[in-house]
Amino acid sequence: MQGLELSEKFFEEYGRPVLESDFSDVLPLLAAGLIGSGSECFGYDDEVSRDHDFEPGFCLFIPDEDVLDRRTAFLLERAYQKLPMEYMGLRRSLVSPVGGSRHGVILIDDFLTEKLGSADADLDTVQWLTIPEQSLLELINGRMFFDNYGVMTDIREKLRFFPEDVFLKKLASNLLLMAQSGQYNYRRCMDHGETGAAQLALFDFTESASHVMFLLNGRYMPYYKWRFRAMRELPRFAEEADLLEYLITTGNAGDSVSDKEAVIETIVSDVIDELMDRGLTDAVCQDLEKHAYSVNDRIAGGELRNMHILAAI
What is the spatial distance between Cα 199 and Cα 212, in angstroms, rounded to a whole number? Predict the structure, then answer.
């Protein structure tokens, strides 16, 4: 059983009955689910990931004391701690995991501040450009079991993906990096005998290419350890995961340089086809740099459009 299912079963069997019997008067102000950090919130947990932080538990989201008084918040925390310490052969931990508590009673403002740097989910352009995508993803992943208050649902919907202009800026930035690292610098580094730099070029190309693929699928790019798994689940570009993995897990001796150049051009061509099919570029060529600037030109807001093309990196 994966963590999301375990969490929901624990909540439905023990959490919900306590809330409905002992806290019915404040039930309209509460929300419960499992979202945030950890592979279980993405559905990526397995036998290996159960060596830490794998336990029955859920998040009970509450508003601040202007809405829900401090005493009620304390009583909710105490009620949560009194839930069974063992469930389906797994024990709940009394110690918060590194990075803070992932379960229990959580103030909505505290959760937002942890992920966004502020309790305000109305992000300006700079925040959209600079908040790590992993943090945004941790606000919309997992599952809400109920949300009577509605705030968490509204926030999750609001942060579902980038505004159009921010999407275009991030896309343009990463397209340019793809061009520089893959189409240009990989071969030049090899010609200079800089094999370490050549391998870094491949890593940079893989990083920016995977970012482009998530963007074109309308999804935030996850933390690196889940990136290839998540890429293989994308509706578009899933097949590129194996190609990108090949680029960074094999050497650069002999004919492999030409082979890797061919793989790079295959990936580039596929991305360009997608850009052209969706009307995101006016360029007609295989030079990805020209497409990057064409995408940047489509940004409606002049201030963001005129920022350095790599401003989103």
Answer: 20
* SS (HEC) of the chain: CCHHHHHHHHHHHHHHHHHHHHCCCCHHHCEEEECCCCHHHCCCCCCHHHHCCCCCCCEEEECCCCCCCHHHHHHHHHHHHCCCCEECCEECCCCCCCCCCCCEEEEHHHHHHHHHCCCCCCCCHHHHHHCCHHHHHHHHCCEEEEECCCHHHHHHHHCCCCCHHHHHHHHHHHHHHHHHHHHHHHHHHHHCCCHHHHHHHHHHHHHHHHHHHHHHCCCCCCCHHHHHHHHCCCCCCCCHHHHHHHHHHCCCCCCHHHHHHHHHHHHHHHHHHHHHHCCCCCCCCCCHHHHHHHHHHCCCCHHHHHCCCCCCC
The sheet with strand 59-62 has its strands ordered as 104-107, 59-62, 31-34, 143-147
Structure confidence at residue 99 (pLDDT): 40
220: DSSP letter: P
- pLDDT at residue number 52: 55
> Residue 34, SS3?
strand
Tell me the percentage of the chain whose pLDDT exceeds 90.
85
Residue-level pLDDT at 50:
62
Ranges of the chain with pLDDT below 70: 49-54, 94-101
Q: Are 16 and 33 in contact (CB under 8 A)?
A: no
pTM, to two decimals: 0.92
Q: Which two tokens stand for residue 76?
A: 């909710």
Q: What DSSP element (H or E) covers 135? A: helix 133-140
Residues 153 and 32: their CA atoms lie apart, in Å, by 11
How many whole angstroms separate alpha carbon 278 and alpha carbon 167? 14
CB 252 within 8 A of CB 198: yes
Q: Outline where DSSP puts E strands in 175-216.
A: none
Helices and strands counted in the chain (H then E): 15, 6
